[in-house]
Description:
With 79 residues, the protein is mostly helical.
Amino acid sequence: MKVLDIIVTVLLLIGAVNWGLIGFFGFNLVAAIFGETGVFARLIYAVVGLAALYEIGCFTFGLKETQQRWCETIDAIKH
Length: 79
């Protein structure tokens, strides 16, 4: 699950940066790279949305377990 948590976090950061670029500059990075209506762009949006739902579930139903997994991951990186 640690690997899944890291992947989800990276996807959420990508989504957040993209929304920040849209909000501040009117620039959609995903659409610029993969095309405005491309299948791959829609896939990216869908995967980021699923990552958000996963994270909502973790924080709603499994906050202590999620915190413990992240602490174990950070400890493993430090050593």
